[in-house]
Design a protein that fits this description.
The two termini are about 30 Å apart. The protein has one domain. It is built from 15 helices and six strands. The protein has a six-stranded mixed β-sheet, sandwiched between helices. The protein has about 325 residues and is of the alpha/beta class. About 40% of the residues are buried. The longest helix has about 30 residues. α3 runs parallel beside α9. The radius of gyration is 19 Å and the shape is globular.
């Protein structure tokens, strides 16, 4: 669930899915007490618990909302609590606003190679037959023909397959994740929406991950297929309990159970994703947030994994003199 976690908690790339439709078990809750304590110690760090915060500096105010880009009925109560803070904001800042999402779709339609293999060998031509057979089986379980998946970029297919089959297909008329729902309210109320980064940021992110590493992530994803429903449930529960960083640590531990995996390999894979999708973007976003806050109070909604740790947005703002306080909507 490395890519799925990063995507669902950091960037809305594909259509949202109904998180509550799976019936898996919470794997973290099932851990023996000693293992859970060790995992919590590993995840421990600055601002490691909670999805809602405020930052203040020299009369300026930023309300920070950690989002989850998947549909869940629990967002009804969350959204009701956040509406007053949004109403006070001069702008809503998100990873990708309506303009950026439209630009991304347009770019992909004009240049399919951004997400698909338009030249060179297809995925089944790059993988041993038995490995591709496993991929094809997982693809069919999600209602897609394998020939369509054969030309996906490895990172795109891996992120799709990390979402369990129980989430597909998307129910007709389903609501969207927290960020999309906040944007809908902002549009209705005439609150400006600004993006934290350019529309093609997600594409540049995966360009940083070498093709061989993307293929390894795809193989690891398929190897964990049997756990995908449990992992999805664990992910959603972790978000709503404010423990996204704990789930991130758990995914790193789960990698160690894969055949042939070593701690060094697992650490490298997690570090690659952390740098490309989380840490480097945090550094780029802080100046954008600070500039916007000089024009009045703002509400910023972005993936929950960007908030905690010593490299998170909250710690970076604190280093710049902002006072950080947990917010209980």
């Amino acid at each position: 669930m490395r890519l799925a976690l990063a995507l669902s908690l950091t960037f809305a790339l594909t259509a949202p899915v109904q998180a509550g439709s799976c019936q898996g078990q919470n794997l973290i809750a099932a851990l023996p007490p000693a293992e859970l304590a060790a995992l919590q110690a590993q995840a421990d760090g600055p601002y490691d618990h909670g999805n809602f915060w405020q930052a203040r500096k020299d009369g300026q105010l930023i309300t920070l909302v950690g989002t989850y880009h998947m549909t869940d009925p629990r967002f009804d109560a969350t959204l009701a609590d956040l509406v007053p803070y949004l109403a006070q904001a001069k702008a809503l800042l998100v990873e990708a606003g309506p303009a950026e999402q439209a630009a991304l779709q347009s770019a992909v339609s004009h240049d399919p190679s951004l997400m698909y293999l338009t030249k060179g060998p297809t995925l089944p031509e790059q993988m041993p037959p038995l490995d591709w057979d496993q991929v094809a089986q997982a693809v069919r379980a999600r209602g897609m023909a394998p020939f369509m998946a054969a030309k996906m970029q490895p990172w795109l297919l891996a992120s799709m397959l990390e979402m369990p089959a129980c989430l597909f297909p998307l129910p007709e008329g389903a609501d969207q994740g927290l960020d999309k729902r906040l944007m809908k309210i902002a549009l209705a109320q005439g609150i400006p929406i600004a993006a934290l980064e350019p529309y093609d940021a997600i594409l540049e992110i995966f360009e940083q991950i070498p093709p061989e590493d993307q293929m390894a992530m795809l193989r690891h994803t398929v190897a964990m297929e049997a756990l995908s429903e449990d992992m999805a449930t664990t992910l959603s529960d972790s978000y709503f309990s404010g423990d996204s960083r704990l789930f991130w640590a758990y995914t790193g531990q789960a990698l160690l159970d894969l055949p042939g995996m070593t701690k060094a390999k697992a650490d490298r894979e997690m570090a690659l994703i952390d740098h490309a999708m989380i840490s480097s973007r945090n550094v780029a976003w802080v100046p954008v947030l600070e500039k916007a806050a000089r024009q009045g109070p703002i509400l910023a909604a972005f993936g929950a994994l960007h908030l905690p740790s010593d490299k998170g947005v909250l710690a970076l703002l604190a280093q710049n003199g902002w006072t950080i306080e947990a917010l209980t909507p």
